[in-house]
Design brief:
The chain is an alpha/beta fold. It contains 13 helices and 12 strands. The strands form 3 sheets. The protein has a 7-stranded mixed sheet with strand order 1-2-9-6-5-3-4, with helices on both faces. It has a 3-stranded antiparallel sheet with strand order 10-11-12, covered by helices on one side.
Length: about 350
């Protein structure tokens, strides 16, 4: 099966979902770029699995790839790694016409995209996501950046990719925990937009529909990005679970993964919405059951005061309000601007 979804934002680009496309990434890129040089960026784990295959495909399409490999993990998503990558690109004399290739999960995509947005004031980049989380969410839409000690994704830029190549075959190398990590983002789409999708996930991930579900999530992301590319209105709905989740992730010093943290964040917010009568129909119990079916946590290990301290540094704080996303019902979420002086009460209700 092959599916192409086209995003029309500040840049127009295709997202190809096709088994085996990893091995013809060079041919597909050659239709877009006349340059001979390219830089492939990957973490150490993904490089061991797929870097040789990608570079072989690039060479077969007359590209001359250079490779930047960094240590696996969220701990590498820093200004220091970004600066080292910038120097690598300069030392290898990459020019404005030479594309970067992000080969990996969300950390690699965010880091490479931010490098693309800033090196020489902007060079093109291609996303080749290798995790379910990156396939359904972070590889699409142009949000790029790195973390600061004070919080996640506090430095970055909007920079759309030129192409996204999604090869579902690579998901076979993910551990069960890594696959569950991506399932959190899929469940998020069901909670925000799509009751039918949510219902299909209640007893776990239907393995016979992986490509179809990836396509469904990507198409939801496309619609939101086209409507609100720069995250000022409807796109903020995609932050459901993330404001609390990012705080959980940071407080755990990244021992809890992004997907695990978002699962906890979704549960906390849904519980608070139910208890404070902000939902049109109760959501939290069914959400927790579904998250548990995907081996995702639902109980927050931190108290409300600790969460609050981190959340007040979140980039979604504007003036004396923070923009939360709460479920009205399963399949329908809404923006809920919350005064920061009431946020502690909200969090206590969710724990």
């Amino acid at each position: 099966m092959s599916r192409t979804i086209t995003v029309s934002a500040s840049g127009r680009y295709d997202i190809l979902i096709q088994s085996g496309c990893l091995d013809f990434c060079g041919t597909r890129m050659r239709t877009l770029f006349s340059a001979s040089r390219t830089a492939v960026i990957a973490d150490s784990r993904v490089a061991a699995l797929y870097l040789d295959r990608v570079c072989a495909s690039l060479r077969n399409a007359d590209f001359d790839p250079v490779c930047f490999v960094f240590p696996e993990g969220e701990g590498s998503k820093t200004l220091e790694t970004w600066a080292t990558l910038q120097s690598f690109l300069a030392k290898n004399r990459l020019t404005r016409s030479d594309p970067l290739v992000a080969l990996g999960g969300g950390v690699t995509g965010d880091l490479t995209g931010f490098a693309g947005a800033t090196y020489l004031r902007g060079v093109p980049f291609v996303q080749i996501p290798t995790s379910l989380l990156a396939m359904v969410d972070s590889s699409v839409g142009g949000k790029t950046g790195v973390d600061l000690p004070e919080g996640k994704n506090l430095t970055g830029a909007f920079w759309q990719p030129s192409l996204v190549l999604i090869d579902p075959d690579v998901l076979r190398t993910l551990s069960a925990d890594q696959f569950s990590d991506g399932s959190a983002e899929v469940i998020k789409y069901g909670m925000i937009f799509d009751r039918n999708l949510f219902d299909r996930l209640q007893n776990g991930f239907p393995q016979d529909a992986v490509e179809e579900i990836i396509g469904t999530c990507v198409d939801w992301k496309r619609q939101v990005v086209e409507e609100d590319e720069f995250d000022n209105a409807r796109r903020q709905l995609l932050n459901y679970g993330h404001t609390v989740g990012h705080a959980v992730e940071l407080l755990s010093n990244f021992s809890l993964s992004h997907g695990q943290s978002v699962a906890i964040g979704m549960s906390v917010v849904a519980t608070a919405a139910d208890r404070l009568c902000l939902s049109e129909s109760p959501c939290a119990d069914l959400l927790r059951q579904t998250l548990s079916a995907h081996s995702l946590p639902t109980v927050c290990p931190y108290d409300a005061a600790s969460l609050l301290q981190v959340m007040l540094r979140d980039k979604k704080v504007r003036g004396n309000h923070i923009q939360l996303v709460i479920p009205s019902a399963i399949g329908a979420c809404r923006l809920y601007p919350t005064p920061v002086d009431t946020l502690l009460t909200f969090l206590e209700a969710g724990l």
